[in-house]
């Protein structure tokens, strides 16, 4: 049974609006706190640099996606015809890809910075990681830009061919052509999702193995080590990322499978999870960072005090 198209659009936009505004506030908070710290200290460490680009990319992604959801209802059959919608689709795709890569970079950074291994290459990365981070972020931007351009061009070509072959009796052939043109785009996008997901997975496994070795050495030597706390905090953060990445990765794959089935209940749930991911993930980032957590708690305490005084 299909959703009524009007009620489906209205419900989807209402939920997207709530999720988008919550995510915008959360990511704006991250960016503002880091920018204030940047002004005070005149410098940023590698962790703050990654958090800054993650917060900025997610803020603009949610804002543009929210605007695009309204425009797609006003122009439901003009996704690749109307120039404004073309621009929003391109920017949304780029920000979505960069958002995934920035988050994966953060997990890899935690792994290299916290985990302890005697491998010479891993030691070299640990020493050079602060210099590598800017180049890693730049590579993420360039790679996301290339992937989004390729995927958009393929999808645009598929829609153009579909418009040229929608005569009487040719709808089945048009559907086949759409699938054939969308397959390379889905393959490239799916490959990117898989690589970023594997980066997060390996980071979690390496941190878990490092924590296990460190705990065993502490029991053997009967001594305490402050790095245990760093291991535990990083492990909690990366495991939280891993769980959310698993859900998000499944939604991204399902989104490619049900891309042409708009209005279905499965597509509706996929959109709900996808729009919730940037906000929920960023909220975990706040509570895994001591400075961000303390600032948020001070703001909430101040707001609560003002409300009570009224």
From TrEMBL:
Where's it mainly located? membrane
Q: Which InterPro entries match?
A: TAS2R (IPR007960)
> What Pfam families does this protein map onto?
TAS2R
Q: Which GO terms describe its cellular component?
A: membrane
Gene3D superfamilies, sorted? Rhodopsin 7-helix transmembrane proteins
Q: Which compartments does it reside in? A: Membrane
Which UniProt keyword terms apply here? G-protein coupled receptor, Membrane, Receptor, Sensory transduction, Taste, Transducer, Transmembrane, Transmembrane helix
The keyword Electron transport is annotated on this UniProt entry: no
Parts of the chain that traverse the membrane: 20-39, 51-74, 94-112, 132-152, 193-212, 238-260, 266-288
What is the recorded membrane topology of this protein? Multi-pass membrane protein
Give the GO molecular function terms: bitter taste receptor activity; G protein-coupled receptor activity
Q: Does the keyword Transmembrane apply?
A: yes
- Family (UniProt): Belongs to the G-protein coupled receptor T2R family.
Q: What is this protein called?
A: Taste receptor type 2
Per the UniProt record, the lineage of the source organism begins with:
Eukaryota, Metazoa, Chordata, Craniata, Vertebrata
């Amino acid at each position: 049974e299909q959703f009524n198209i009007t009620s489906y659009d209205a419900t989807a936009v209402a939920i997207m609006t709530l999720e988008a505004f919550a995510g915008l506030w959360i990511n704006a908070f991250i960016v503002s706190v880091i920018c204030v710290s940047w002004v005070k200290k005149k410098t940023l460490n590698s962790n703050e640099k990654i958090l800054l680009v993650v917060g900025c990319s997610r803020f603009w992604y949610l804002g543009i996606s929210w605007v695009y959801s309204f425009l797609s209802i006003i122009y439901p059959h003009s996704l690749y015809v109307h120039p404004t919608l073309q621009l929003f689709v391109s920017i949304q795709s780029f920000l979505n890809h960069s958002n995934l890569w920035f988050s994966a970079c953060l997990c890899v950074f935690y792994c290299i910075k916290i985990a302890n291994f005697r491998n010479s290459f891993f030691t070299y990365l640990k020493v050079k990681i602060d210099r590598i981070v800017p180049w890693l972020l730049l590579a993420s931007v360039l790679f996301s830009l290339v992937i989004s351009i390729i995927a958009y061009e393929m999808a645009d070509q598929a829609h153009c061919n579909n418009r040229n072959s929608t005569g009487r009796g040719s709808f089945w052939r048009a559907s086949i052509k759409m699938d054939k043109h969308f397959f390379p785009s889905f393959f490239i996008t799916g490959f990117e999702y898989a690589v970023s997901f594997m980066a997060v997975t390996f980071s979690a496994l390496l941190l878990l193995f490092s924590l296990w070795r460190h705990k065993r050495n502490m029991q053997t030597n009967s001594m305490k080590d402050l790095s245990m706390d760093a291991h535990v905090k990083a492990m909690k953060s990366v495991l939280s990322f891993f769980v959310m990445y698993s859900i998000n990765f499944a939604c991204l794959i399902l989104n490619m499978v049900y891309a042409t089935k708009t209005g279905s209940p499965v597509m509706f749930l996929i959109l709900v999870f996808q729009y919730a991911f940037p906000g929920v993930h960023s909220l975990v980032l706040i509570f895994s960072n001591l400075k961000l957590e303390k600032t948020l708690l001070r703001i909430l305490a101040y707001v609560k005090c003002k409300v009570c005084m009224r």
